[in-house]
Amino acid sequence: MKKGVERTLVVAATLAVLVAGAGAYAWSGLYDIGADTPHWKPTYALLETLRDRSVHARTANLAMPDLDDPQRILKGAGQYAAMCTGCHLAPGMRDSEIRPGLYPQPPDLTRQRVDPRAAFWVIKHGIKMSAMPAWGSSHDDATVWSMVAFLRKLPGMTPEQYKAIVAKAPPDDDMDAGDARPAIGHPGMGDMSGMDGASSAQ
């Protein structure tokens, strides 16, 4: 019984020292918070694991709508063009003005396929200590799902296909009149024949 109490006291004392040490380190200002100074590799690996497991735990049972609905995809194309290209690029873009200064570097979604449930959660809720905002504060779930639907079509899409689908996208009702939007126009739904090449790349 006495040994058990002693072990508990040792564990408690060790934890107290670790917490105090972490607090002292944070207070000292020794940590370089600059975005141009990368994390140590173990720190980066830990943060990636924390992010991935957190998202997985919150999306495992998430119900999805029909992500192949052409109208949903079209709406997502307009949303993506309006909100996402600065960080995640568009077909034909090599870089943007803001992207090189971001850490961690946002994924190039023209090349990277995403898990739909994880994409929905990340778009809606954002990611702490990154440049990813929580779009759910200004966009409803249906709009977020439309972005996910479009993301499934984006990898492998040519610049011409991208420009064509964005031109057909309906106006973004969630944006203020003064917000930026590509001046391509939105002539209506039309058909999705120009998406065949991109759709087959799923």
Automatic annotation (TrEMBL):
Biased composition, class Low complexity, residue ranges: 189-202
Annotated region described as Disordered, given as residue ranges: 170-202
Domain Cytochrome c residue range list: 71-155
The keyword Metal-binding appears for this protein: yes
Keyword tags: Heme, Iron, Metal-binding
Domain of life: Bacteria
Parts forming coiled coils: none
InterPro entries tied to this protein: Cyt_c-like_dom, Cyt_c-like_dom_sf
Protein's recorded name: Cytochrome c
Annotated organism of origin: Rhodanobacter hydrolyticus
Lineage: Bacteria, Pseudomonadati, Pseudomonadota, Gammaproteobacteria, Lysobacterales
